[in-house]
Each structure stands twice: as C-alpha cells, then as structure tokens.
Design a protein that fits this description.
By secondary structure, the chain is an alpha+beta fold. The chain has 6 helices and 4 strands, in the order H-H-E-H-E-E-H-H-H-E. A 4-stranded mixed beta sheet has the order 1-4-3-2. The longest helix is centred in the N-terminal third of the chain and has 19 residues. The N and C termini lie far apart (92 Å).
Length: 159
C-alpha cells in the first residue's frame, strides 16, 4: 500500500500542472474557510401595490412630479404603473402629457398632442367616434402596456 501511495505522489510532484491545480484548490479552500460573508443574500421584495379604482381626478397626482415619483396612466379603462418607463412617460419625456391621465384617445389616434387628453373633471371619454383602425391601434397599445407594466387599477367615473 505504501508503495502505491509513493508511486502516485512521485508522479504528482513531477507534473507542474498538478502543482498549479493543488495551489488553486488550496486557495479556494482557504477563501471559503475565511469567508465571513453570508452565503445567502436576503431578497428585496417589491412594495405591495393594491389594485384599486381610480377616477380621472384621483389619477392626476400620479404624473411623476409627486414625492414618490409614481407615474400612472389610464389605457382603455385600465390603469398601469409606468414608473419604470419614466424616461418616456415622466416629466420631460415624449409622452409626459399622458402621465396621470387617461391616454386612450391619444394612443388610439397616435397623437401625443395635449388636446388628446380629456379634461379630468368631465366624464370618461367613451371613444365612440374612433375608426376601426384607431380601435386596433388602441388594442395594440393596451397589449403593449399589459405586457410591460404593472396593472394597478381600473379607471372609473368621477363621483
């Protein structure tokens, strides 16, 4: 038995690659043994967002300028939290006029002009005058928002 061990050891010490592998293994074992960091890092859970009803007036503060910086947008009766896309929908973004509003008409017509936004004190725009291609455009936008952003509520009439 001792002869077999001596043979293996002599072959091991003659090959420089074995020495390199032994050094790497020793380093890994030493690093692992001296590590004071926990091996598991606690996950940070997202804040809880409650699904709720928003009126056009209650949606207004969520234009990205508030203390929390949240940006909400109404799209065809649904309300989406588009805060993570604030470069587009937040202050200074190309679609900033939609933030805190029902953006349905503007999205349907592919127009980002301010006159596409319905006054929040008026009833919700029923979009009855939209052409079939505009309805299709609105549905495509709705699918985009549903796939990319968190649905946080439903748009309902002012009380």
């Amino acid at each position: 038995m001792a002869t077999t061990f001596q043979t293996v050891f002599s072959q091991f010490k003659e090959n420089p690659v074995n020495w390199a592998l032994a050094a790497v293994l020793a380093y890994v074992i030493r690093s692992y043994a001296q590590s004071s960091k926990p091996s598991v890092i606690a996950a940070k859970h997202p804040d809880v967002i409650v699904f709720k009803n928003y009126t056009p007036k209650s949606l207004l503060p969520f234009d990205g300028t508030g203390d929390d910086g949240r940006v909400l947008m109404g799209v065809n009766g649904s309300v989406y939290d588009v805060t993570r896309g604030r470069n587009f929908y937040g202050p200074g973004g190309p679609y900033a006029n939609f933030a805190g509003h029902d953006a349905s008409r503007g999205l349907a017509k592919n127009s980002f002009d301010a006159e596409m936004i319905t006054d929040p004190s008026l009833p919700i725009d029923k979009l009855e005058d939209l052409a079939p291609d505009e309805w299709e455009s609105l549905r495509e936008w709705e699918q985009h928002f549903a796939a990319k952003y968190l649905l946080v509520g439903k748009l309902v009439e002012n009380e």
